[in-house]
């Protein structure tokens, strides 16, 4: 009798589970949208959960499953999600219908991330706009240009480091990461630091704290980036609290010291100290923005710059052409200014092509915030608030329809004629629309200053012309050794 009841209950539960999963995993087919066949409970993410593939590889498979479709439905575990493939619809999501897709999928809350509540990428609702306005106050075009001398000073540390490593194999990501630690430390945190030689510098300690975070635990990464509700319920922080506390303490000490001593410095910190509000309000803003700068300004820029160095190492002709452009620019103006750097045409092409080919982020995850209707493959689809939408930015930038032979490094893809021939919104390394990367101007400048390491030696009048040429070659020319590393040659 009891056994029969137990069996009946189990059958009932299994039936309910089947009906639930059936309804969940037919979400897109019931709406006339092509979908990826899901695996129960995991959707399309079982290979990611098992560690067999990263989510970028999964996105790649989804993107090319239906190559002629405007969009493809898939499931992020139990959550239906829509991958937008058509650039015209991508433009609607990011720009023209921005009010319907205002929020990013990934977010932080004050309880779990006390010093990330003003992060313009992680804010939702009505808070993102004032948070963004606060963050970019110190990143206007004129202010970023005023930081240029501090950035150039940082090059001296990198030049010393590279000179000491002549003939040795170097990991591009490693030395670019230390360079940007030093640069961001100097310009954003107001610390005259040299992370190349000082293992106890504040930024080295922050990196060490970040390395001990949940990000290093594979399944915690899945929760932090792909299961937002579970992340909140478990109390996971987007960035480790010890790192946030340490960074905030450093920023507070810098700010309070300057207020007490009246010391001034032309950097990001000074911009906020000059504002007309209380010291506590200034420190609160700076503590939040400092953490944002550290995570966004250091890691993303070092990845981009490391890839540029690697691409140049593989493509000697491109490297030679860029070298010649930099050499000619210095010949015309030994004190190379910010405007000249930003307007070097071939450097711009190299930067854009490497950014296209080596996107830092696989995708732009968005959340619908207001009802909107899209026409997808001839069918009208009503998208309701809360629906997750994903822009596969990396896949679009590697799609042969827009970039023939996409694996080939070809800076001429970004000459004016080729750019005009492509559809809009097929190049978005910083995102696009009102929520485009808030630190884009700063990021572009600090990445473009990275190749100038060699040219610093031109400032030394003690070198003759022949010696200057040798120094330039020693500190700039790289050759390919193995994936993700370069060798310096004399």
Summarize the structure.
With 490 residues, this protein is of the alpha+beta class. The protein is built from 21 helices and 10 strands.
Averaged pLDDT, please? 84
- Overall, the morphology is globular
What's the total count of β strands?
10
Radius of gyration: 25 Å
The major sheet is characterized as: 5 strands, mixed
The end-to-end span amounts to 86 Å
Trace the largest sheet across and list its strands: 1-2-8-5-3
What does the model show?
- By secondary structure, this protein is α+β, with helices and mostly antiparallel strands.
- The protein contains 21 helices and ten strands.
- It has helices spanning 2-24, 46-49, 55-65, 87-96, 128-136, 141-146, 148-164, 172-187, 202-211, 218-226, 228-234, 241-261, 268-273, 279-314, 316-332, 338-342, 345-357, 393-397, 416-421, 440-449, 465-476; strands spanning 71-76, 79-84, 103-104, 169-170, 364-367, 372-376, 379-383, 388-391, 478-482, 485-488.
- The strands form three sheets. It has a five-stranded mixed β-sheet. It has a three-stranded antiparallel β-sheet with strand order 4-10-9. A two-stranded antiparallel ribbon has the order 6-7.
- Helix 12 crosses helix 14 (279-314).
- The longest helix is centred in the middle third of the chain and has 36 residues, at 279-314.
- Residues 454-490 have low confidence and may be disordered.
């Amino acid at each position: 009798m009891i056994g029969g009841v137990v069996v009946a209950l189990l059958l009932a539960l299994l039936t309910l589970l089947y009906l639930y999963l059936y309804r969940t995993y037919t979400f897109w087919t019931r709406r006339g949208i092509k979908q990826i066949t899901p695996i129960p409970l995991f959707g399309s993410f079982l290979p990611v959960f098992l560690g067999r593939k990263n989510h970028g590889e999964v996105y790649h498979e989804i993107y090319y499953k239906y190559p002629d479709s405007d969009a493809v439905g898939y499931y992020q575990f139990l959550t239906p999600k829509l991958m937008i493939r058509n650039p015209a619809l991508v433009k609607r999501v990011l720009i023209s219908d921005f009010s319907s897709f205002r929020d990013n999928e990934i977010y932080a809350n004050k309880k779990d991330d006390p010093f990330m509540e003003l992060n313009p990428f992680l804010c939702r609702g009505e808070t993102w706009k004032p948070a963004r306005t606060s963050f970019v106050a110190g990143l206007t075009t004129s202010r970023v240009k005023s930081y240029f001398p501090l950035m150039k000073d940082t090059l001296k540390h990198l030049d010393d480091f590279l000179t000491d490593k002549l003939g040795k194999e170097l990991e591009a990501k490693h030395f670019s990461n230390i360079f940007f630690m030093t640069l961001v430390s100097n310009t954003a945190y107001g610390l005259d630091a040299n992370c190349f030689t000082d293992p106890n510098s504040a930024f080295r300690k922050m990196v060490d704290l970040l390395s001990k975070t949940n990000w290093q635990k594979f399944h915690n990464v899945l929760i932090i980036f792909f299961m937002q509700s579970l992340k909140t319920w478990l109390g996971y922080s987007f960035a480790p609290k010890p790192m946030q506390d340490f960074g905030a303490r450093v920023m507070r000490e810098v700010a309070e010291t300057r207020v007490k001593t009246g010391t001034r410095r032309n950097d990001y910190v000074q911009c906020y100290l000059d504002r007309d509000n209380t010291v506590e309000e200034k420190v609160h803003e700076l503590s939040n923005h400092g953490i944002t700068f550290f995570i966004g300004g250091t890691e993303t820029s070092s990845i981009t710059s490391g890839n540029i160095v690697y691409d140049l190492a593989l493509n000697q002709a491109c490297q030679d052409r860029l070298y010649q452009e930099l050499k000619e620019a210095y010949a015309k103006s030994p004190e190379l200014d910010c405007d000249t750097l930003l307007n070097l045409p071939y450097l711009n092409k190299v930067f854009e092509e490497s950014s296209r080919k080596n996107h830092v982020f696989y995708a732009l995850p968005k959340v619908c915030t207001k009802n909107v209707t899209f026409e997808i493959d001839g069918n009208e689809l009503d998208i309701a608030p809360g629906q997750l939408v994903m822009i596969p930015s990396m896949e679009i930038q590697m799609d042969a329809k827009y970039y023939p032979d996409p694996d080939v490094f070809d800076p001429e893809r970004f000459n004016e004629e080729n750019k005009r021939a492509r559809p809009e919104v097929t190049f978005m390394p910083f995102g696009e629309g009102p929520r485009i990367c808030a630190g884009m101007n700063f990021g572009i400048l600090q990445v473009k200053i990275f190749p100038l390491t060699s040219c610093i030696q031109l400032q030394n009048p003690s070198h003759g012309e022949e010696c200057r040429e040798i120094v330039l070659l020693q500190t700039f020319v790289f050759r390919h050794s193995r994936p993700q590393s370069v060798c310096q040659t004399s």
